[in-house]
Amino acid sequence: MVLKKEHLLSMVLSFIIFLILNIPSLKIIYSTPLINIILPLALWSVGILKIISNKQLNLSYSRVKFLLILYMFWGMIFLITFVRMPTLLTYDNLLKYIVSLIIVTGVLLFLYKQEILNVLYFQVLWALCLSMQKIIWGIELNRGLGQHYLTLGLPLSAGIVCAILLLFYERGRKITKTFLIVSITTILFALTSLSGRSPVILSVLIPLIITIIHLFMEKRIVKKVKVLIAILMFIPVFLFLVYNNMSDRLLNTLTNDYNFENEPRFIIYSKSISLIKDNPLGYGLNSGELGVSYPHNIFLETAMSGGIFSLSILVIMLFFVFSKFFKAINYGSYKIVCSALALLYFLTWNISYDLTSSYIPFSAIAILIISTEKNNYNST
User: What is this structure's pTM?
Assistant: First the structure.
């Protein structure tokens, strides 16, 4: 059977977008800054070939609206940086943020709705591969390259969240269901061996939250009962597996008394809020000389970098995204998985990453927006 050019381009583009979502964990295998350049170039090259092949460009109202908000967001931050700290707008600094914008633009322009399921299954497969390597040989993270528990924990939690919700909401053959069950079990063993608590907590909470929301939105009584039974059966089994396979270090982290005021981030948050109060218009990007270049919170970082105007644009963007979030849950099927993946990436990015890696959550949000489109673009 000859593989059509359209099918091949579709699969390749899906694979590239999956790779982009996992750039940090790809660097566990082989670390090079060229990945950040090669993958965006590949995205646009394959995307342009798709447009030429299909003679069609994806520009729905939702995509254009999100792009406009996103460009306003970055434009305001760049403007504040130019006014406050023009010396920071060097070629290297600008390139990091512009590449992020180019990536998200490419996802919105080139990805078809029918290709999203490929991205989700690639994510599960990648998490399974990382988990097997972690369990069998172990994975050493390079602190010198900025790698930490989330470098491995985030793709694992993304994989298990996708697998759980695909198992419950996406129709598939028995072999597919078996693959998902094996993936969930294997990823769970690897995930609970990590030291950090957020990947484990989010892997439990996000599927639960999404399922409960869907339960309330579901109008069919029989379907409601089935979902409720699935929740009641799944939660104790999943929590039992989590607890019995949890590393001693992670168990101590979760069970120790938590004092928020002793948390180092509390000090960072307090200092960031004080700086924002002193100058609500913002200080510009990379304001490390202020002593808080990485406030561990996207809202605080946005307010520090672009001031209250950039923060207002971010809030407007999130209101728009939340409308798509609930619409995707209401639609069901793989669209529910897209809402969960976007939520996972945003929550994790909000507490542990900065604006230079914003292409990851914004790309996941772009996938969510595309999944809610009613128009069925003919890509294959």
Answer: 0.89
